[in-house]
Amino acid sequence: MPQQSRIVVVGAGTMGATLARLMASRDMSVTLLDIDRARLASCREAMSDDDVPSSQLDFTSDWQAVGNVSVVIESVTEDLDLKRRVLAEAERHVPAEALVMTNTSGLSIDALGQSMAHPERFVGAHFFNPADVVPAVEVVPGRLTHAATVEQTCRLLRRLGKRPAVLNKSVPGFVANRIQHALMRECLALLEQGVVEAEALDDIVRYSIGVRLAINGPLRQRDLNGLDTHLNIARYLYSDLEDRHTPSPLLETYVAEGRLGRKSGRGFFEWPADTAEAQSRQERELLVRLLALLEESASN
Ligand SMILES: NC(=O)c1ccc[n+]([C@@H]2O[C@H](COP(=O)([O-])OP(=O)(O)OC[C@H]3O[C@@H](n4cnc5c(N)ncnc54)[C@H](O)[C@@H]3O)[C@@H](O)[C@H]2O)c1
Predict the structure, then answer these.
(1) From ligand 1's centre to the CA of 289, what distance in Å?
(2) Distance 156 CA to ligand 1 centre (A)
(3) CB 16 less than 6 A from any atom of ligand 1
(4) In whole numbers, what is the pLDDT of the chain averaged over residues?
(5) Which runs of E-coded beta strand occur in 130-261?
(6) pLDDT of residue 235
(7) Is the pTM above the cut of 0.85?
(8) Same-fold call for 6-166 versus 176-247
(9) For residue 202, is pLDDT > 50?
């Protein structure tokens, strides 16, 4: 890809805004496109406060205004029909050889690409929040995605300082969300059954499997522990684990009551509005420090 080709990020929400900031800070020309003009205006204002080079960034609601595009990153609301419409519109405005990615958290790449004219250049690129800090990106080909598309995507991601991890095929939730939801299904069941309080549960996970997972990943960690021991425990434990096929009633109740987490002031815990910003800044700083440590140890 030529150095100054234009990337269009569609959707200026939580993820799109950070993706645009990341790319502009890496000297790439980016257009952030959203139907919500107020959202675009607040992104423009937020980014003018940062040290993002403004010459690299454009904001628009109009596909006609985006010019010569080599990469599209679709990052609109997680809704299959909406994403299909957005992808169809993108295809009407970009050259047939442009790379088209979706930042879906786990919708089927084949279903999203079903009515695309050129599904061979379409691929999942699942970033994690905050996208300018977290290194991993799941790269998910559909059945019709060309190998060259996957390679081109990985090259672009490496230029962004990311760690692309390629899946062999698209499954719902990809890898990260499948694992996250399996973990949360069990956490919610433990709360519902009154086995443990929320604070203690987080403490156990953070200071035991949490820190070790960051260092080793689940499979390396099991190798270190011994697969025979894991099997012995799996034999008696699996029949007791939560295996429900619908979301937990506790989660349904919390959401129905408006307990959405930090953004509404209450979730499993209380989130006073006056500490929210400091808390999210601290979380970001910790992430950066932890990742620097991991990188340092990997290079030793
Ligand atoms: N938030 C996360 O932690 C996270 C992490 C990884 C991936 N994702 C995925 O990224 C995508 C975006 O998530 P988000 O959290 O940024 O959502 P969000 O709700 O914050 O933002 C979505 C944006 O899409 C815009 N939009 C809707 N319809 C549009 C259209 N037709 N054209 C242009 N823009 C349109 C909305 O105006 C909004 O600004 C989703 O697919 C989500 O699953 C989210």
Answers:
(1) 27
(2) 21
(3) yes
(4) 94
(5) 136-141, 163-166
(6) 98
(7) yes
(8) no
(9) yes
* 143 has pLDDT over 90: yes
- Phi, psi for residue 142 in degrees, rounded to 5: -85, 180
Dihedral sign, Cα of residue 184, residue 133, residue 199, residue 272: negative
* Distance from C-alpha of 86 to C-alpha of 78, rounded to nearest angstrom: 12
Classified as helix, coil or strand, 173 is coil
Q: How far apart are CA 119 and CA 101, in angstroms?
A: 10
C-alpha triplet 27, 49, 282: angle, nearest 5°: 95
Q: Nearest to residue 118, comparing CAs of 136, 86, 144, 143?
A: 144
Closest residue by CA, ligand 1 atom 31: 86
Structure tokens at 109: 């790449």
**Which 3 state secondary structure label does DSSP give 125?**
strand
- Asked whether residue 49 carries a pLDDT value surpassing 80, the answer given is no
* Structure token pair of residue 208: 């035991």
> How far does the centroid of ligand 1 lie from the alpha carbon of residue 126, in Å?
12
- Fold classified for 6-166: Rossmann fold (3.40.50)
Domain boundaries, the chain: 6-166, 176-247
Indicate if ligand 1 lies below 6 Å from the C-beta of 75.
yes
Using CA atoms, how far apart are residues 260 and 111, in angstroms rounded to an integer?
A: 29
* Closest protein CA for atom 36 of ligand 1: 11
Backbone torsions φ then ψ of 276, nearest 5 degrees: -60, -45
CATH number belonging to the domain at 176-247, selected among 3.90.76.10, 1.20.1250.20, 3.30.930.10, 1.10.1040.10: 1.10.1040.10
In angstroms, what is the span from residue 15 Cα to ligand 1's centroid? Answer: 6
